[in-house]
Design goal:
This protein is an alpha/beta fold. It folds into two domains: 105 residues, Urease, subunit C, domain 1 (Roll), CATH 2.30.40; 303 residues, TIM Barrel (Alpha-Beta Barrel). Helices cover 30% and strands 23% of the residues. It has 13 helices and 16 strands. The strands form two sheets. It has an eight-stranded mixed β-sheet with strand order 3-2-1-4-13-14-15-16, covered by helices on one side. Strands 5-6-7-8-9-10-11-12 form an eight-stranded parallel β-sheet.
């Protein structure tokens, strides 16, 4: 058993002072506000629940700072992404993902939803272990000290019109849903790992197969990230991607739609009315010039919000949460579109990746804590409640995951993260 003292702690949607937090067996066993007695470890600043990165492509971390020449578009960025994807094998992917997940831990992320579609060898031939790449990701998360939901992705074609996979895309495909499901059945859960599923997009899976994944959960899909996807879907199916998912019974609380940037009013009603979750990735969406989604409208319609770092242009849950509000301000020309409580709820939304017992500092929940300094050049003078709108990942001092101290005094306890990243990407 370990007892922590939090100078300021986020409890029940507000900041409370002098909170004793007892952890036993990786769970919170006692939460006592307004106590200053003997404790084992003191956490200065503001203590928050662990953050969830609900949408990650670990190998994209190798692209940071390397895709901005000649301006480019989403599609030219994708060609650079394919180049990185072509070069990785299970050993090199383990090194890159381990360093990337350790960077997430430093930023206050305690669980990641890995949208995993880099499955096979360079020519599409499965490895001797057909889940070698998935196992590398699960091991990488274990070594980095965070939990993972491996969202193993169905990817069968290169366009809505049914064009076959070509080039590096052959690494992504299993041929048909039955072979995909057979391979995924070989992936085993672990104390720190759960297995979910993903439909890459309506571009990548024939419409008549969409409903075959509807009963899997957690289930994720890239949705309406680009106007071109909407246009292609209307040309082939006569409807929006959201309407196509509704037609095949895929919408619902088990589904999280990633990005959901270019939606019609009907799309918003369908997503919200079905309780479909929405994962926005503001730093990637701005990096790729994707556009601004409709977070406030979707939340009001009934869609739970979560956040992801996607391409890892930045790994910083504070920046993702802040950008969610700032994007809303730019689009609406109104301030205060999302409350601090709503932003923290989105940043700590572990349920979207299947960890319903995490994301809240409460008795019985998984013991995840993130301590944020309130005396840095960014946070000094800020009210604790407003620190979310001022802090960055650099202000995280301590991170506890399932009761284990993974980050202490701003350093990962097991990994030299800058060195690991440099070696994995060189």
């Amino acid at each position: 058993m370990t007892v922590y003292h939090a100078a300021h702690c986020w409890l029940d949607g507000r900041v409370v002072r002098d909170v004793q937090i007892e952890i036993n067996g990786g769970r919170f066993t006692r939460i006592s506000p307004n106590e200053k007695g003997e404790v084992d470890i003191r956490l200065p600043g503001l203590t928050l629940p662990g953050m969830a990165n609900a949408h990650s492509h670990a190998f994209h971390r190798a692209l940071r700072g390397r895709t901005h020449a000649d301006r480019g578009t989403f599609w030219t960025w994708r060609e650079e992404m394919y180049r990185v994807a072509a070069a990785l094998d299970p050993e090199s992917y383990l090194r890159l993902a381990r360093a990337t997940y350790a960077e997430m831990a430093l930023a206050g992320i305690t669980a990641v939803g890995e949208f995993h579609y880099l499955h096979h060898g360079p020519d599409g031939t499965p490895y001797h272990d057909p889940n070698a790449m998935g196992h590398a990701l699960i091991e990488a998360a274990r070594e980095a000290g965070i939990r993972i939901t491996l969202l193993d992705t169905l990817y069968l074609q290169s366009g809505v019109d049914g064009r076959p996979l070509e080039g590096v895309q052959r690494r992504f495909g299993d041929g048909d849903p039955q072979r995909w499901a057979s391979r995924v059945a070989g992936l085993g859960a672990a104390p720190h790992a759960r297995i979910g599923a993903a439909i890459h997009s309506v571009r990548a899976v024939p419409a008549h197969h969409l409903g075959e994944l509807a009963d899997r959960g957690p289930l994720h899909i890239h949705l309406s990230e680009q106007p071109a996807e909407n246009e292609q879907c209307r040309a082939v199916h006569g409807c929006s991607p959201t309407e196509l998912l509704d037609r095949h019974g895929v919408l619902g609380p088990q589904l999280t739609a990633v990005h959901a940037t270019h939606l019609t009013d009907r799309d918003v009603k369908l997503l919200g009315g079905s309780g479909t979750g929405i994962c926005m990735c503001p730093t990637t969406e701005r990096d790729l010039a994707d556009g601004i989604g409709r977070a406030r409208e979707l939340a009001d319609a009934g869609s739970p919000l979560s956040l992801g770092s996607d391409s890892h242009a930045v790994i910083d849950p504070f920046e993702e949460a802040r950008a969610l509000e700032m994007n809303e301000r730019l689009a609406s020309r109104q301030r205060g579109r999302l409350t601090v409580a709503e932003l923290i709820r989105a940043a700590a939304n572990h349920a979207s990746i299947g960890w319903d017992d995490a994301g809240e500092i409460a008795v019985g929940k998984r013991a995840d804590l993130v301590a944020v300094a309130l005396d840095t050049v960014r946070t000094a003078g800020a009210e604790p409640t407003g620190a979310l709108l001022a802090a960055t990942a650099a202000d995280v001092t301590d991170v506890i995951v399932d009761g284990r101290h993974v980050v202490a005094d701003r350093r990962h306890t097991a990994i030299d993260v800058p060195r690991a990243l440099a070696e994995a990407i060189s």
